[in-house]
Amino acid sequence: MANSVTKKNKFCFDANRAVVTKVFSDINETDLFNNDNNFSRQIFFSYLDLLNTYKIQQFLTALSSSTLADSIRESNIYILLFILSTLCSSVLFVDSDISDQYNSLLNAMRLHVNQNLQMIVRYVVPSLLRAGCGKSVIEWLNYPTLTETARRPIVSIVHNLSRHDNDADELNKYGAIEIINQMQQLDNVRQSTTLLINTMTLALLSTPNQIKTDPKGIKPILDELLQITIHASTAEKYRYNGFHVSEPLAVLVKLFIDDTTFDYVMNQAETNPPSNLTSTIKLFSDLLISFHVKLIEKNRLEQFTFIVLFNIL
């Protein structure tokens, strides 16, 4: 139906979406979903299944288009996501609810977010901080009963916020460094990928003097940061294992304030294939040249990556 939309009848599509949103909001205010869990679950998974189609996943991972039909599709998807996010607070989930059948949809959503990262960083993140998100995520991170699975998304949010100076200052107002250091001592964190993200976050939140005074136990993390950079340097869109190449680089440039750390990464880091001073300098130099060429595109993420590489070299 969206393919037949024109400027003249687009108003009808917009009006219908507005009505659906208003009706759902009104129903939600009646406490119907809170009072009938079976009904809430039925509605939730019905809407989730509407999104869980090959065509929707194709659309989410395609490059943005300016056609009216695509605008209609995107708006409809966002309405479904609004309904799902609202229902989440009313539905009682069990472990088997979100099974592997939704993996492709969740991955498509993740890729869609990555493609729209520019807008998220520029507009959404500041709005979240103004709404008190910085304080809340630090409080959530400090919950003692959180499982590793439940903690991981919160850790990722804190890491993403810490990549921006103003946001890092906001997190530090609420004791982010102290809480993350406490979390690092948990057994399930020391043995998981959360340790890497936490270490990256601590480096971004810390001052140069703080980094110099706490270099212990960091060699395996440095190995992994350089390894991610090596893989991402040749990957599509410079992304590897969920990280853009700028993310490990931004951490390394801060850690390099410590001469011992700099020497280890450049001369001793254990990677596959093995690296040495010459290969590591070549890695950073080749990336610098690649992102210098991209500066003409005025992409803020690519500009940031170029600046980080320039500072390293």
Mind explaining what this structure looks like?
Keywords: Membrane, Transmembrane, Transmembrane helix. By secondary structure, the chain is an all-alpha fold. The protein has a domain of 115 residues. Helix content is 71%, strand content 1%. The protein contains 19 helices and two strands. It has a two-stranded antiparallel sheet. Strand 1 and strand 2 form a beta hairpin. Helix 4 runs parallel beside helix 6 and helix 13 crosses helix 16. The longest helix is centred in the first third of the chain and has 20 residues.
Descriptive terms for the model:
mainly alpha, two-stranded antiparallel sheet, globular, transmembrane helix
Q: What's the Cα radius of gyration?
A: 22 Å
Unreliable residue runs: none
Topology as a string of helices (H) and strands (E): HHHHHHHHHHHHHHHEEHHHH
Biggest β-sheet description: 2 strands, antiparallel
Oligomer: single chain
Number of strands: 2
Count of DSSP-assigned helices: 19
Shape: globular
Strand content: under 5%
Structural class: mainly alpha
Indicate the percent of residues in helices: over 70%
**Quick check: average pLDDT?**
77
Strand order of the largest sheet: 1-2
Spatial separation of the terminal alpha carbons: 54 Å
